[in-house]
Amino acid sequence: MGSFFEREKIIPRYKIIGFLMVLLGLLILGKALYTATVKRDYWSVVADRLKRDSVEVKPVRGNILSSDGRLMASSIPEYKLFMDFKALSDSKADTLWTDSLVNVICEGLHDIFPERSVQAFKDSLERGRARMSRNYPIWPRRVSYDTYSEVKKLPIFCLRSFQGGFHVEEYNSRNHPFGSLAGRTVGEMYGAKDSAKCGLEQYFDSTLRGKPGVVQRKKVLNKYLSITERPPVDGADIITTIDVGMQDLAERAVIEELKEINGNVGVAIVMEVKTGDVKAIVNMQKCADGEYRERQNHAVSDLLEPGSVFKTASLMVALDDGVVDTTYKVDCSGGTYDMHGAKMRDHNWHRGGYGILSFGQTLEYSSNIGVSRIIDEHYGKNPEKFVEGLRRIGIASDLEIPLVGSAAPRIRMPKKNARGQYTNWSKTALAWMSIGYETQVPPISTLTFYNAIANDGRMMRPRFVKQIVKDGQVLQEFKPQVIKERICKESTLRKMQTILYHVVSQGLGKKAGSRSFKVAGKTGTAQISKGVGGYKTGQMNYLLSFAGYFPADKPRYSCIVCIQKSGLPASGGGMSGVVFHNISEGIMAQDVKLDVNDARDSLSILMPDVKGGNLIPADYVLTQLGIRTAFDWTSDGKPVWGTATRTPNDVQLTKTEVTDDSLVPNVRGMGARDAVYMMESRGIKVRIEGRGKVVAQSLGPGMRYRKGETCSLKLN
Question: d(Cα 107, Cα 25) in Å, to the nearest integer?
């Protein structure tokens, strides 16, 4: 074997081959290290162009609906338009980019976006092409789907994105079919950030938003393939308690009064008594241009001294504690009273005041002196008991409103130090607290208290959302919640209900009343402090309120109206009460059902006026209405043309001979439908002016005509 295997010759060759293989391996390893270190950034950019992992897919945001299912906020797609000139350059479509075609594109863009000229579009596109921009904006703002579709029809833009370069970015935009109706309650979105700004949009953001999906995208043969890794989960819808009709009615009533009195802020809330459902909530604020818009949810966030609407709570505490009864008399003096060194005045102090008033009359006439004396004389030595009473009746309850920025009432409890001295209380604090000062209560809390009075003492939590639904299934239901089963004794409640009815029927709240149904409630007029200067800074700001419910005998709805204005005149009953009246009348009018017989009078015409034309349908309608008809013709199913004459007992249907088809028919006295049918069946085109029945025709009856000729019909 040694003769065939020459070791001295073969082994050196193996060594050379092994050395070359080791050298090749070292070169490959060196190249890999070079690519992973020195060229890392370059190849990362290339990889990003070829493959994009974990691309987020946004879900569709859920809708916000009214109580009857009408859309109040919904998501619609919007698009930003871009041009990829690099993709255009790399494709064969680049040869299409000629001056003539560019002019056609720019003219088309100008027709779609007339704000920018043809030349401006051309200059802009040429700048983008010169830079070989891959994401050049064609239009700076988002556009609707219809606009996007129009742009997509233009030359080059109609090609696929990797050919023509035209591409878009899709966004979810929020659409409000009813405009600004209940805007601060429904909420708004930051368009650019796609995030909620306020209202129910913000509070239920996670529910409405849904969950984004993930898609893997890979570029293969110059095309992107999308592989869904996790599909997006669209947001759920929320059904609110808002009634669109009541909301519109309340907004118009508030704005009309604000314009009439030059008010600064107007608030109105309508609540369903039994459930606590908020049916309407208005927050109008005067803007710099003099128009009224919703800028802040004053109804749930304003911590202002409520004024005289608070007196109901004060007297309820006294009555419920048994320190007074309805026979109690109080001396209101001559309209002024020295209350621990401070002057307490009634609104009619300059006319001599009210003198001696009964317990109920102090509320009917909203006597500051009467209410404050009752509370001060019976709770002056133990103010803690009075505040505990306010908490007991629920007016200090935290309502946990599902709106960001909502505030709970602030009614402070007297506190003493170790020596038994009050640290946060003065001698006048109790008297002024009893008439609605030295405490802060948002309008929604005041209304909730009055709603409890209307609801036989049962205090309901205000409800803004009834259900969360998705794909027709209820995911979560928000049932009416009871805060307090009873705010006071049964006897106390009945007496307060009677007094509140008398406030409207014979007291200062008459303008809030109605001739059609009973109304109960309380007026309120409070001075608003203006900063450090307090109440002594010249012109005064006022909070004018009316809180109540209707119908008083069988309460269905409660309502509060608050208006802030500067200067006099200022009257809670005369201004806010008027708005309350308009809202309550409008709401109750929706349910009024009258008998048709009530609309008849001695002068009414009960026999209808029937137009000429085809007599067969006229006979059918009259017969269904129970009106007798008289005619002497028969029908084989074809139209019977004629005229109708009204008599005291019936309607005479008289057949007339139809003219030759070659002649223009006489259609005077006919309705539009029959007249058009008769004309067009003969090839005559028709132009109609007015409505009613035909009183004139441009082509005279019986004249010859040419097919396609136009006849103008005048109706009246």
Answer: 62
